[in-house]
């Protein structure tokens, strides 16, 4: 009897082991199949080849790896610092004003300022090198059309110039126009910068928190950084579904409502900030971003990327602006001879005492301005982005740092 009992026990134990092994094998197979299916869904952006480089392009890539300046003056960044990225083109008059305003920002010395250049321009570089109020890191877009004067991504002698021209190189956009290097540079620089800041730079590629993005024609109020820190802290509570925070209203002509309430609205293109989670969602839409026939990065985001998230995309901001867009000239007009690309009232912004200190409170409620579909289904873009070479370069940027992700 005892022997039969022991035999039955052994049989039950062996059976349980077999069942356990079978379950483990099944789980392993499911995980392997799932992993393979995920891998097949990830686009192989690294398959797109980068353009032929020239001497300047190679030297700029080397400069991009240099450590930040002023580390001896500001050896320690604040624990809760928010990196600021200032992206610039070739408008030195504007840049001087933007830098002057940044120098007055409370807390600017606690963080890292990254200046992203669209190409290399000596005067712009000189202005940035004069900054002494915080740590500064410069990066230069090595594939900017501005550093390729006679080949792609710049203008090649064999490129099509006129829409009626034949026997030339180029792909027309939806309106029958060939590419303009200065125009496409707008979108290329923004996308290259985003990929580089989030995934390429040693200083930032492991940061999960928010990063603030501003341009050379933005006047930044003294309280901007402190307000930004408050908004980032309040967002999970006040607007958990918000994707970003903004220093300015989405309407660039507005200076804010002025009353005691936070605002949730459409993401604006002046002083916007988001975290790595949002960047991951944006990067997943790289193909949509790169293939949409629209030369403006912001309109591309509003018309294709944000709508693909499956819900309205909101940002959180305060009732008084902490950043103002003052540019009157296009990004790539720069200087024409002796004409300065700056309007007469650039620096006539009134900075009141309330604009010098943080003016956002945690006990305020939130007014929601419904995000409207400015670019409804069927909007095809304003063109300027139809050349397949630009599509490929854009997709190459999406895969530059795949090894770091």
UniProtKB/TrEMBL annotation:
Reactions catalysed, as given in the entry: an N(4)-{beta-D-GlcNAc-(1->2)-alpha-D-Man-(1->3)-[alpha-D-Man-(1->6)]-beta-D-Man-(1->4)-beta-D-GlcNAc-(1->4)-beta-D-GlcNAc}-L-asparaginyl-[protein] + UDP-N-acetyl-alpha-D-glucosamine = N(4)-{beta-D-GlcNAc-(1->2)-alpha-D-Man-(1->3)-[beta-D-GlcNAc-(1->2)-alpha-D-Man-(1->6)]-beta-D-Man-(1->4)-beta-D-GlcNAc-(1->4)-beta-D-GlcNAc}-L-asparaginyl-[protein] + UDP + H(+)
Origin superkingdom: Eukaryota
InterPro entries: GlcNAc_II (IPR007754), Nucleotide-diphossugar_trans (IPR029044)
Annotated GO CC locations: Golgi membrane
Coiled-coil segments: none
Disulfide bonds, paired cysteine numbers: 160-168, 239-242, 290-394
Binding site for substrate: 118
Cofactor: Mn(2+)
Any Pfam family matching the protein: MGAT2
Subcellular localization, as worded in the UniProt entry: Golgi apparatus membrane
Membrane topology classification: Single-pass type II membrane protein
Annotated binding of Mn(2+), by residue: 217, 325
Enzyme class: transferase
Pathway annotation: Protein modification; protein glycosylation
EC number annotated for this UniProt entry: 2.4.1.143
UniProt keyword list: Disulfide bond, Glycoprotein, Glycosyltransferase, Golgi apparatus, Manganese, Membrane, Metal-binding, Signal-anchor, Transferase, Transmembrane, Transmembrane helix
Gene Ontology terms, MF aspect: alpha-1,6-mannosylglycoprotein 2-beta-N-acetylglucosaminyltransferase activity; metal ion binding
Protein family according to the UniProt entry: Belongs to the glycosyltransferase 16 (GT16) protein family.
Protein name, UniProt field: Alpha-1,6-mannosyl-glycoprotein 2-beta-N-acetylglucosaminyltransferase
Source organism of this protein record: Castilleja foliolosa
């Amino acid at each position: 009897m005892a022997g039969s009992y022991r035999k039955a026990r052994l049989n039950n134990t062996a059976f349980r082991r077999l069942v356990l092994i079978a379950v483990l094998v099944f789980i392993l197979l499911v995980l392997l199949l799932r992993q393979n299916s995920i891998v097949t869904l990830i686009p192989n952006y690294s398959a797109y080849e980068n353009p032929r480089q020239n001497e300047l392009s190679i030297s700029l890539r080397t400069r991009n790896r240099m450590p930040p300046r002023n580390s001896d003056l500001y050896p320690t960044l604040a624990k809760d610092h928010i990196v600021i990225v200032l992206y610039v083109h070739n408008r030195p008059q504007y840049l001087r004003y933007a830098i002057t305003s940044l120098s007055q920002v409370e807390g600017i010395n606690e963080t890292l300022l990254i200046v992203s250049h669209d190409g290399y321009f000596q005067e712009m570089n000189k202005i940035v090198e004069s900054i002494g109020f915080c740590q500064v890191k410069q990066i230069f877009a090595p594939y900017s059309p501005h550093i390729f004067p006679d080949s792609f991504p710049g203008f090649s002698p064999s490129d099509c110039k006129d829409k009626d021209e034949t026997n030339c190189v180029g792909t027309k956009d939806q309106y029958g126009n060939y590419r303009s290097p200065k125009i496409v540079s707008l979108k290329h620089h923004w996308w290259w910068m985003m990929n580089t800041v989030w995934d390429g730079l040693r200083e930032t590629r492991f940061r999960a928190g928010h990063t603030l993005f501003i341009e050379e024609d933005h006047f930044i109020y003294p309280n901007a950084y402190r307000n930004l820190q408050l908004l980032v802290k309040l967002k999970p509570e006040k607007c958990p579904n918000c994707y970003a925070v903004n220093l300015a209203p989405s309407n660039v002509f507005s200076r804010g409502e002025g009353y005691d309430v936070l605002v949730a609205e459409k993401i604006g293109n002046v002083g916007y900030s988001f975290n790595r989670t949002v960047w991951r969602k944006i990067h997943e839409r790289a193909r949509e971003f790169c293939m949409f026939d629209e030369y403006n990065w912001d309109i591309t985001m509003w018309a294709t990327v944000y709508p693909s998230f499956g819900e309205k995309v909101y940002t959180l901001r305060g009732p008084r602006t902490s950043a103002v867009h003052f540019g009157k000239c296009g990004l790539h007009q720069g200087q024409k001879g002796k004409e300065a690309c700056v309007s007469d009232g650039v620096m006539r912004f009134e900075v009141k005492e309330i604009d010098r200190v943080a003016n956002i409170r945690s006990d305020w409620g939130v007014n929601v301005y419904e995000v409207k579909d400015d670019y409804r289904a069927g909007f095809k873009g304003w063109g300027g982005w139809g050349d397949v070479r630009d599509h490929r370069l854009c997709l190459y940027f999406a895969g530059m740092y795949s090894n770091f992700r």
